Amino acid sequence: MRRSIIAASPSFLYALLSHRHFSVARICRCECPFYGSHRSVCCVADSFSNKLATLNAYSSLPNRLMLFSTMAGTILVQARDPAKLNMEIVDAIDERRYSDAWKICEQHMLMEGFPRKSVVNRLLTGFAESLDVQWLEKAYGMVEQAFQESKQNLLEKEPLIYLSLALAKCNLSVPASTILRKLVETEQFPPVTAWSATLAYMSQTAPGAYLAAELILEIGYLFQDGRVDPRKKSNAPLIAMKPNTTAFNIALAGCLLFGTTRKAEQLLDMMPRIGVKADANLLIVMAHIYERNGRREELRKLQRHIDESCNLTDVQFRQFYNCLLTCHLKFGDLDSASNMVLEMLRKAKEARNSLATATLVLEAAGNNNRAFTAHISGPNPSQNKPDGSHNNSLTELQIISYDEFSRDRNFVKLGNEAKEVLLSLQAKLQTQVELITTEHGILQPTEKIYVKLVKAFLEAEKLQDLARFLIKAEKEDSPVSNDDSALVHVIKSCISLGWLDQAHDLLDEMRFAGVRTGSSVYASLLKAYCKANRPREVTSLLRDAQKAGIQLDSSCYDSLIQSRVIQQDTQGALGLFKEMKEAKIPKGGNAEFERLVEGCAGNGEAGLMAKLLREIKEGQKLDSGLHDWNNVIHFFCKKRLMADAEKALAKMRSLGHIPNAQTFHSMVTGYAAIGGKYIEVTELWGEMKSLASSTPMKFDQELLDSYLYTFVRGGFFVRANEVVDMMEKGNMFIDKYKYRTLYLKYHKTLYKGKAPKYQTEAQLKKREGALSFKKWVGLS
User: How far apart are the first and last CA of the chain?
Assistant: First the structure.
């Protein structure tokens, strides 16, 4: 049999390779042998031999193939049946041979384009079931390509929801949110019970939590102010997508955990506008948000609902009052904070007395005391603490099968999954409660709140109020000994810090109130005065000690004698020595206090005193006036009274308060709400940059994102690029999808044609800025 040899030009070869019905099966450097009735096709492939070495595709040629041969090498082109290829993809997915399925799919894409609709969706769900990042990314890439080629009709709603859930479970929040956004754009509205599960898994990472809030804002916008008529049957799928209380709870908890609380407040503002009602969990989350943002008046309004609510647990009450107490401290309202603590102590004392009385009655009656005590105590306190059980169930990465998913038409299982993840997020929030604890269902203050209150009183120089508060606290919660009271610890802390006058004033307040104390406090202060060489204060303190009937120890006499020697008062020193001998004062000194101070100096744990010293040395001084002015500015901006907001900002500066990120965020969002105030926002941007270079003010993601949105909306792309650079340097997440959509909405035709021949430098800069931003969002 004679073989046909045909020489082929490079242009003919290129046309052959680019034809949609041919596939290159193999390239070799020698001529292909002739097998049976099949013929090989050989041609010159110098520039293509490396790239096309492993590709497979189809040929619509008849059963015989032609051989093209040259000195350079050979190419084998083989024909395959597209229908058979579709079957092979499905079989590979069913057998979990994902690598084979993808290779066959690539062959089909090269020659015929996308496989059949059913095969595409089976491929997406198969890759999603694997929960393997490699295959999830390929599945998402196929979805992206389908939308780019306007072939989204190949994609069904349920497989896309399933894929977005799998992506979110694997911490791929950006593609997960993009799929949900595409579903909304194409009006394939996913029910809220389905997409809230994706939202829940997204909210476990910082970028995902931010995107979750953005998603609710975007979807909620469709329902604002009664835009959708629920009476129309055609609106039923859209109504089913409306965010519910669970979705809001999830997004708000994520915002709290990752610090985007101003975004969370935007979600709270949206809730009444779309008719979402708050449940018990949402009330507590609202309290956390108001506390973080310094909205004390909102917290006070919320307190009425909390006190009237009958289905709140001890843990929830503790979280709310922790938020309220923290907010009082932020605003420097020490009276309200100290009164809250005293009220808690009083109720705890009453509860202890009532419990003791009830126990005695039951013992007298011969009842089982243990059962009653357990009933009064309520749930075990350990149950109130997050034990991580929810987290443990989430660490095992798994997903229900697509068959099971598709049978659950109402997405009940996904709704339950979302609620389970919500519980884990709320458990993490409980660990942030530091100022209040519960015992037998009764709120009680922790040492942390004593430390913060004492520090605030000392900074405000309200020593009399501090002493009065601590004495009242001691009456409600009596210490074991006079030397172990909170007030004594505070006095000793002041001595350690060198604040001797404050310590003496507090000691006087104790004496005037008739509160007795041991000799250790007087001894410690006396030694400190001697060391500081302050003889007048030494004499005054000795007189006070004698009035209080305090007997000083030998170490105090040693310090006094040494002080007199330094002052060259020999007679005084001898007199003190004689007095010590006659009084038969034992040696030993105040070793207990010395050990306490040494423990503090060595970063050891020494109870309240050590915590107070650490808080005073490391804690930042709060500017309570700043929170007041921020609230005023926020109120004006929310009401769109920007002229009043500008006056308030000017007054705030004149009083010496430096604006912070929250101040600028309120101003920028206020300007953005009324529109057209881009020059004012640009001026704020310049002021903020200069402040950041001269003060410790920090840029955060929410603030920079608000600037970026305003600059893109107004077409100020040079400034927008500055913000982008700053966010990228700070490793902050940027929602590119949002800005790509915003650009296409308002600037789609901007700078599309050729650049004019004559441009000013400013025009050239604007054009370059816009094109640079367009490239950054992926539109060029």
Answer: 56
Radius of gyration of the chain (CA): 37
Measured between alpha carbons, how far is residue 197 from residues 171, 259, 386, 428, 735 in Å?
13, 22, 21, 18, 20
Query: In which residue ranges of the chain is pLDDT below 70?
Result: 1-80, 355-396, 477-485, 551-622
How many other CB atoms are found less than 10 A from the CB of residue 414? 23
pLDDT at 619: 58
Contact 155, 146 (CB under 8 A): yes
Phi and psi at 55, nearest 5°, equal -75, 145
Alpha helices (H) in 431-553, listed in sequence order = 447-459, 463-476, 486-497, 500-512, 519-531, 535-547
Neighbouring residues of 358: CB distance < 8 A, sequence distance ≥ 6: 372, 376
- pLDDT of 602 reads 44
CB of 538 within 8 A of CB of 529?
Answer: yes
Asked if residue 255 lies in contact with residue 264, where contact means CB atoms within 8 angstroms, the answer is yes
Q: What is the DSSP string of 639-701?
A: TT-HHHHHHHHHHHHHTTPPP-HHHHHHHHHHHHHH---HHHHHHHHHHHHHHHHHS-----H
Q: What single-letter amino acid sits at 232? A: K
Report the alpha-carbon distance of residue 209 to residue 166 in Å, rounded: 16
Per residue in 251-284, pLDDT (tens digit) is 999 999 999 999 999 999 999 999 999 888 999 9
Instruction: DSSP letter for 461, please.
Output: T
Give the pair of three-digit tokens for residue 96: 């979990």
The residue with tokens 């400013």 is 762
* CA separation for the pair 731, 517 (Å, rounded): 55
User: Which residue type sits at 172?
Assistant: L
Which tokens belong to 431? 């660990």
Model pTM score: 0.77
Q: How far is CA 380 from CA 1, 280, 354, 369, in A?
A: 92, 21, 19, 17
Nearest to 559 by CA among 514, 582, 529, 537: 529
Q: Beta partners for 38?
A: 35
d(CA 509, CA 645): 45
pLDDT at position 272 is 93
520, 497 contact by CB (below 8 A): no
CA atoms within 13 A on the CB side of 113: 8
Place of tokens 């120890």: 553
Site of tokens 């170490």: 555
pLDDT digits (tens, 9 = 90+) for 607-616: 555 665 565 5
